[in-house]
Structures are given as structure tokens and as C-alpha cells.
Design brief:
The protein is α/β, with parallel strands linked by helices. The chain contains nine helices and ten strands. The radius of gyration is 21 Å and the shape is globular.
Length: about 350
């Protein structure tokens, strides 16, 4: 008699969950009390945050600056890549994403009880990473098959690999760098000054947040992509000319104003500014990047004006010097930095390759 082993079935819907975590002392001062995190979980039927099953490979996704934990599903920021029959299939992997510390989608952040209220409070990518490690501890997840994130999410992905080298087997930092360049910090500085010029700053920032977002959108995209999607055209003979890109930028600003908080925006900008894995971790003496042991697939975008191919070159060199197994893929795109949220036909094979990277020896 031949026995048939039933294949696991996917959970009907992803799960949103909340975790209560230990207090977190921040790197640059202040303590997050009543610390909690909101997460998103998609796995096999019966595998839940309350009762996780063993022997399911974990995929941890880290969202970008103004993202949230909902990586997949109808509103997910990586929806085309996640789901039954897709590149990362919850039948085969437990897919997990958590809202960044200091953001405004359910995790501890500005305006939430227990979060520091000092106006000079600051965040780093190290703080966000330590909060994620606390969440993994609470869930009982001690090994992660693949960790991926773009932009700020890529910075956090790399920082996780430096903080817990034995825990993370494969890393995919997309459109990011070993350290925030003066170019990146400069753009973030201008955005921050725009916020602070708003008459309602810091608690009722409206137009300032819209304009800061408009500025950011121009750095997230590239000229060829904007020309393709927002082509210049003149309608009628009116002297008050409206170009499509102007309407596009106004729309993007209004959308962020409706869904995000200016103080949280500043904290996420600060986390990006302070990112520098060329420096040692607190209490250590070697560059943080040299601690990474995970097999790493570095992904850059040829038209990215924030994190250029030269930045990817430097990241690859640092990882190779650390002894990590490193591969590099450049995405060809007209869209610039945001290609890691748009170029699905390129990203699918990239993640397939990443899932198959040789794991580092224990």
C-alpha cells in the first residue's frame, strides 16, 4: 500500500498581529516603553504567530521609508511577488513583515503611549533592527532563510545581518548602501526643513508634508520614467499651463498627508541618515559590515540617483572583504530608485535566485 502525504495548504488570508515587547533603549538617547510591534504573517494553514509550526523556512521582508507591514495581498507593496503560485509562496515559506519602529502603522512611534516625547528624539537603522530582533525572539524565530528590503529597508536588512550573523542565512539589500551618502543626507535635510517651515509643525503638518513628499518623489524616480508616464503636453491656449507631472506630484503629496505622520517621517529620515555600517556596533571594535556572514545578493538599479551603482560597488567590496558569499544584479529600468517597487518581471527572477543561494556554513 502506498501512502499519500497531503501537501500543505495556504492560509486563507494573511494575518495582522501585535506583539508586546521589552522596553528598548535607543542608540541616541531615550527609551521606548510599553514597546509593541505590529506584524503581517502569511503561511500555511494552521501556522499562526500564536502557535508557529516548526521546520517552515522564514522569509522576513523589511519595508521602506513610508511603507507598512502589509507586504502582500491586494494592498501589499510587493503583492505581485507574494502568494500562492508566486515567487515567494506561503505554502512553502512563512512570510513575515513588521512595521518599523517609529513609523505610524501600529508599532511604537510618535503619539503612541510609551514612545519618547523629547522633541530631539532620534532613531537609527540600528534601533529599527533591534526592535525587529525582539519581535523575532518573541515569535520564537531563531533562523531566517531570506531577509529582503529596499532603500531604508535595505539598510535595516544589512544591519540585521551585522547584529545577528548566525541568524540570517541570506540577505537581499535592494537599492541601498553600506552608509548613507552626503547626497542622501542632503536631500533628507531639505525635506526636514520643509516640514519645519509648516505653520502647524510639529503636530499639525499639512502642506509641509505634501511638499516634502513631492521633493522625495523626484529623487525616487528617473527622468526617462517621468517622461514616459507624465509626458509633457499642452491643453488648449490657456496661459495657465498645467503639466501632468505637476498633477502627479500634487497627488502623491496629498496621498502621503492623508496616511502618514510628519514626526514619524522625520524619524525614518533620521534612521536613514545615521546608517553607516563602516562604523563598529556599540561595544565592538570592528566595522559592523565585517560581521555579516549571510550569503548576499546585492541589487541596484542602473538609473537610481539616490543609491547609485557606485554605492552598490562599494557595498559588494565591503561584503567580500568580510568573507561573505556575494552576488550582484543590476536592474535595468527607466524608473530610477523606485524600480524595486515596480519592475516585477525583473524582481521575480532575482528573488528566485536569492532563495537558492548557498547558505553559509555554520
Amino acid at each position: 500500500m502506498v501512502s499519500v502525504i497531503p501537501m500543505p495548504t495556504v492560509a486563507a488570508l494573511p494575518i495582522i498581529f501585535d506583539l508586546d515587547l521589552p522596553d528598548l533603549a535607543l542608540t541616541r538617547g531615550g527609551v521606548v516603553r510599553s514597546h509593541h510591534a505590529r506584524g503581517w504573517w502569511w503561511s500555511r494553514a494552521g501556522d499562526t504567530p500564536e502557535s508557529p509550526q516548526k521546520n517552515i523556512p522564514n522569509v522576513l521582508l523589511v519595508h521602506a521609508l513610508t511603507g507598512n507591514a502589509q507586504a502582500g495581498g491586494p494592498e501589499g507593496w510587493w503583492a505581485p511577488l507574494l502568494g500562492p503560485g508566486r515567487v515567494i509562496d506561503p505554502v512553502h515559506y512563512r512570510i513575515l513583515c513588521l512595521n518599523n519602529l517609529g513609523s505610524c502603522y501600529g508599532s511604537s512611534g510618535p503619539g503612541v503611549a510609551g514612545f519618547p516625547t523629547d522633541k530631539n528624539i532620534d532613531l537609527t537603522s540600528l534601533d529599527i533592527s533591534r526592535a525587529l530582533l525582539m519581535a523575532l525572539d518573541k515569535l520564537g524565530i531563531d533562523r531566517v532563510h531570506l531577509t529582503a528590503g529596499g532603500s531604508l529597508g535595505g539598510m535595516v536588512t544589512l544591519t540585521l545581518g551585522a547584529l545577528a550573523p548566525a541568524r540570517f542565512e541570506r540577505l537581499v539589500p535592494l537599492a541601498t548602501s553600506v552608509a548613507a551618502s552626503a547626497w542622501v543626507v542632503g536631500w533628507n535635510h531639505v525635506a526636514r526643513q520643509i516640514l519645519r517651515l509648516d505653520p502647524g509643525y510639529p503636530h499639525q503638518v499639512g502642506r509641509g508634508l505634501e511638499i516634502a513628499r513631492q521633493l522625495a518623489m523626484l529623487t525616487y524616480r528617473a527622468e526617462p520614467g517621468l517622461d514616459a508616464r507624465q509626458p509633457r503636453s499642452l491643453q488648449g491656449k490657456s496661459t495657465e499651463v498645467s503639466y501632468p507631472v505637476q498633477s502627479y506630484l500634487e497627488h502623491q503629496g496629498e496621498k502621503l498627508r492623508e496616511r502618514f505622520d510628519a514626526q514619524a517621517y522625520e524619524l525614518q529620515l533620521a534612521a536613514m541618515d545615521h546608517h553607516d555600517l563602516r562604523l563598529p556596533l556599540p561595544g565592538d571594535t570592528v566595522p559592523a559590515i565585517s560581521r555579516i556572514r549571510a550569503s548576499t545578493l546585492v541589487v541596484d538599479v542602473d538609473t537610481d540617483q539616490l543609491f547609485t551603482p557606485a554605492q552598490a560597488d562599494a557595498l559588494v567590496q565591503h561584503l567580500q572583504q568580510a568573507g561573505a558569499l556575494v552576488e550582484r544584479i543590476t536592474v535595468r529600468s527607466i524608473h530610477g530608485h523606485d524600480a524595486f517597487l515596480m519592475e516585477w518581471e525583473s524582481l521575480g527572477p532575482i528573488l528566485t535566485r536569492a532563495l537558492q543561494l548557498q547558505a553559509p556554513q555554520k
